[in-house]
Prior knowledge:
Structural class: mainly alpha
Strand content: 5-15%
Distance between the termini: 30 Å
Number of strands: 3
Oligomer: single chain
Strand order of the largest sheet: 1-3-2
Radius of gyration: 15 Å
Largest sheet: 3 strands, mixed
Shape: globular
Helix content: 55-70%
Mean pLDDT: 95
Low-confidence stretches: none
Amino acid sequence: MIDELIATAEKRGYRVRWHIEGPKAAWIPDRRAITLRHGMDDAQTLCSLAHELGHAHYNDPPGHYGAHELRADRFAAKLLINPDDYRIIEHTYGPHPARLAHELGVTVKVLKTWQTLHKKELAS
């Protein structure tokens, strides 16, 4: 899935690069580049890339602005979690966030963001 997301980023004209130390990931608009910290686990890498793709999609400026961060979190959640997959996994494993996130291959933060977006659907 990471390779597919990198390919998607590159098709959209964004360069994906790796860095050592520092933040998990960053969107660098003037270079049209996303950098990812080497050494993260697969879920962190995937979710960080999806989050930064959200910043790229909305052409956010550099920096951490609350509204932009929330929008990028929501972009990542929608991109990475399929509602049908979620329903099957929740039915199989129960409502435990850490287990659901693990089975979906995402971080708990992305899972909880997705759940918040779909709260009404989940209640029915």
